[in-house]
Write a structure and sequence with these properties.
Blueprint lengths: L1 E9 L8 H4 L5 E9 L2 E8 L2 E6 L2 E8 H6 L8 H15 L7 E13 L10 E4 L3 E5 L2 E5 L3 E7 H8 L11 E9 L3 H4 L13 H16 L1 E3 L13 H16 L1 H13 L5 H16 L8 H15 L2
Antiparallel strand pairs: 1-5, 1-6, 2-3, 3-4, 4-5, 6-11, 7-12, 8-9, 9-10, 10-11
Helix pairs in contact: 6-10, 7-9, 8-9
Amino acid sequence: MYCSINLTLSSDSSPNTDFIADIPQFLTSVNSEGTFHSVPMISGYLDTLKVSISPNRVKIHNSSLCKFYLGDNFKTLTKGDTKKAIEKISNSLHLPFELASVSKLEFGRNIILKHSEGLYYPYLGESQHLNRLPTNNGLYYQNSLRSYVLYGKVKEQKLSGEPIPSIYANANVLRIELRLLKRICKEMNLPVFLASQLYEERIYSELVKKWKDEYLAITKTKSKLDTIKPTGSKREFEQMLASMALLDLGSDFAQVKVKEWLKTSKITKKQAYDLRATITDLTKYNVGEGGNELIDELNEKVKDAAVYW
């Protein structure tokens, strides 16, 4: 769904409207920002949307379309909702905002996880085209044109003082967002990107695909420790670590080393027997199945979200 978005309507799309004179009456918290290069600037709010006005354009910027239309951005803004949200803006401002150009957008989804989001981040590694930047509440992958962000949604709401819907209060909510920041037409392979295209099936499906593909492009780090079955026993934990080390080194080489120590009189026959028996026992020790439960869960839920958006 669409989150924060920048929409700009030029005066060419509504030539009979005097933006500076006509539009501020539909806004709250109206503030004159003086002039910029001798051009008068006015700002205000349409409900939760930030609006800037100059004589030749009206711009909605850095505002959540979902929060504006549905009341909070925990909900999913569908294609139909997006169309209605644009129509609501148009009706409220008496402007054809379906003709506004899109210069920036965030497209994301909430994923409900079994465990705290922070447990998953260490297994998300590098991305080929984006730089990995850990934060206090998640991970940023970014370059100059776009970013891909994973963060704890409930934690973000708490930090910003925003209300949390009761059904999410105790949930582990991972927010995953694709953010197109610059040259958005090139990113979407479009000659122009208008607000009316936000709810076109082809554009919406392409954004879902980009959202999923950026996740799949992240290297999922693996550790041999993932093969260890959970245990609270110190002895069993030590045995599993020793078994993993022995598998890496090779049990045959370990047996040869024990034989070498015996032949050079560094250990006794009894000690050699005990060591060989230990090696045999460790090679039989079952350290568990491969795979990572956390990353397997996240992979599956991201793929499901892309199918059932």
